Amino acid sequence: MEVGDPVILHPLATCGLCRACRFGDDVHCENSTFPGINVDGGYAEYMKTTARSIVKLDPKLKPADVVALADAGLTAHHVASKAAKFLRPGDNCLAKQIGADHTVQATDDGSFVKEVLELTNGQGAEAVIDFVAEGGSTSTGVKMLRRAGNHYVVGYGENINIPTIDIISAEINFIGNLVGSYNDLVELMTLAAQGKVKLHTTQYKLEDFQKAIDDLSSGKVRGRAILIP
């Protein structure tokens, strides 16, 4: 690594010495800092991090094109990797753009639950990944889950209000997902260099940060807003 090399930063600055880090679980570092949450964030030309957080980019990748992968992309990759460990050949996964056999449009009346059950022969899905977690999506997700299935919670906004008897009788699991690990980010950058991951982003100059926030608030940004110094 040399001064001037293009890099991407893992969102956590970790110590490498605590019990979690020693076990390779840097996401749960006991001494971590999270820029933008408990230390100053990225609305500036400089920010504080550590060498442990740096991933050198492939020369074909431009920082502005992949920066959002260290946030939204990293969390999605992390939860997908988690779910993949429990999926077996023949299990049903929905992601049309990357080769899924079926997609289902969510509707306010909840009729899509029936569609999912029909697609899975009445059994439900092995895994439900909830990127919303509000507006009733948690309880709806459970209705689409088969016995012993895993419900991965990524979004946040509502409480989980599921009768414990339903959790016990079907032996379903709720699994939280904060952010991916450093190794997850390295893997993700490799996939990006291979052209296997894409993001929808809108770029703004750093001094136009308020416009970016306003556009986000009014729903004008598809995907992620990127500030460029």
Automatic annotation (TrEMBL):
Pfam families reported in the protein's UniProt record: ADH_N, ADH_zinc_N
All residue ranges annotated as the Alcohol dehydrogenase-like C-terminal domain in the record: 94-193
Keyword Metal-binding: yes
Entry cofactors: Zn(2+)
Transmembrane intervals: none
Coiled coil spans: none
Gene3D superfamilies named among the record's database cross-references: Medium-chain alcohol dehydrogenases, catalytic domain, NAD(P)-binding Rossmann-like Domain
UniProt KW keywords: Metal-binding, Oxidoreductase, Zinc
A GO MF term: metal ion binding
Domain Alcohol dehydrogenase-like N-terminal: 2-58
Similarity-based family: Belongs to the zinc-containing alcohol dehydrogenase family.
Matching PANTHER family: ALCOHOL DEHYDROGENASE 1-RELATED, VACUOLAR PROTEIN SORTING-ASSOCIATED PROTEIN 11
Protein's recorded name: NAD-dependent alcohol dehydrogenase
Gene source species: Passalora fulva
